[in-house]
Specification:
371 residues, mainly alpha, three-stranded antiparallel β-sheet, 8% strand, coiled coil
């Protein structure tokens, strides 16, 4: 609240002309914010139209068929097919870029009209969807030509060298019987198994414990639930960790943590696929992991609490919290082959109260096997 208005509430000694001046400033700020919001919304609508047009164009694009090729036109067909695939790749790339621009713009609209860093569930769903597609594309680009067979001896050595936090039991189940048709899903599940640490961290992932001020905040977060009521605690947690999240001092720590986790993931995949590591692959994954950490931090500064769960291989399929990659199998009784994305569950209401309330914000993405 502006300083003069605070004085006006507590005292009647503030001159009228000063109050009027303060109110005029506030009206101007409100008008500017309204204009900014309108501009953002107009740009958002334009991007949505461009995205819809691009997707429609991609769907309506004619396939290259044999009827279009002369009997002796094998070379012509090959050139046309190559051009078609190149155009399709470019269209998909532009779609991804437009989606990211749309997400960024909607985030700008949200942050420009909110005082706190509170984010809607629909925005979280969009952000997670984009991150899921990024990881999927990264796996396809880098490991689509990898061999699907993993020898038992190589897998045994690989699992023995993993740290406990790398979930060796889960990874062992993933690679027990890998097939060509499911290898990319298994590789993506491997990435997500390691990346789950980022989202499951109780506080803010990637910050070193050597900062006394951060350790004090974490210690307070452990003790204050016994002192504050639920709403007061979640408000304190939201505000306090949001201030830490925006602190420039932690940026180097976050970058280092992202690079280390990306190196570990690349090391795992390169070991099981026998593909040589390279800096470009690691660098591109580091950028994705860095964005995942930022998104995980944003989840942690909300007043409601969020839980992340990755269904384990062999568990029964549950349509209430999972989506099968094969749309035709949504109502069949199958078991989980692998999970490429976690279930995100919201606990409590928007104020961080009523913790008995639980709602699925994002369903897990799974691949099932059927009897």
């Amino acid at each position: 609240m502006p300083r003069l208005l605070k004085r006006a509430i507590s005292s009647d000694q503030v001159p009228r002309h000063e109050l009027e001046g303060e109110i005029a400033v506030l009206k101007k700020q409100l008008r500017e914010e309204t204009e900014l919001r309108a501009a953002y919304q107009e740009r958002c609508s334009t991007l949505e139209e461009e995205l819809a047009a691009l997707q429609t164009h991609d769907v309506q694009k004619p396939e290259v068929g044999s009827s279009e090729v002369e009997p002796n036109g094998v070379a012509v067909e090959a050139v046309a097919l190559k051009q078609h695939k190149a155009a399709e790749r470019e269209a998909k790339r532009e779609t991804v870029i437009l989606r990211q621009q749309l997400v960024d713009l909607k985030r700008s609209i949200s942050t420009s009209t909110r005082i706190e860093s509170q984010v809607t569930d629909s925005t979280f769903a969009q952000e997670m969807e984009f991150l899921h597609h990024e990881l999927q594309n990264w796996v396809v680009i880098n490991f689509r030509r990898a061999k699907a067979d993993v020898s038992a001896s190589r897998l045994s050595v690989f699992l023995k060298d993993l740290p406990p936090s790398a979930y060796p039991e889960t990874l062992e189940k993933l690679y027990e019987s890998i097939e060509s048709s499911s290898k990319l899903a298994v590789y993506q599940a491997t990435v997500m198994t390691c990346l789950l640490d980022v989202f499951a961290e109780r506080f803010l992932y990637g910050i070193k414990n050597e900062y006394p001020w951060y350790m004090q905040v974490c210690e307070a977060a452990k003790k204050l639930p016994d002192i504050f009521n639920t709403v007061s605690y979640n408000k304190w947690r939201s505000v306090s960790f949001d201030q830490v999240r925006q602190c420039q001092a932690i940026e180097a720590d976050i970058d280092l943590s992202a690079a280390q986790l990306a190196d570990r993931i690349c090391g795992i995949l390169c070991t099981v696929t026998e593909i040589e590591e390279n800096d470009a692959r690691n660098s591109s994954l580091t950028g994705i992991v860095r964005r995942a950490i930022g998104l995980a931090h944003l989840f942690r500064v909300q007043r409601p609490q969020y839980e992340f769960a990755l269904p384990l291989p062999g568990t029964p399929f549950d349509s209430s919290s999972m989506e099968d990659a094969e749309a035709d199998n949504q109502f069949q009784a199958g078991t989980i082959r692998c999970s490429t994305w976690p279930t995100v569950t919201k606990i409590g209401d928007e104020q961080g109260d009523n913790l008995h309330l639980r709602s699925i914000v994002i369903k897990a993405r799974v691949v099932c096997v059927f009897p």
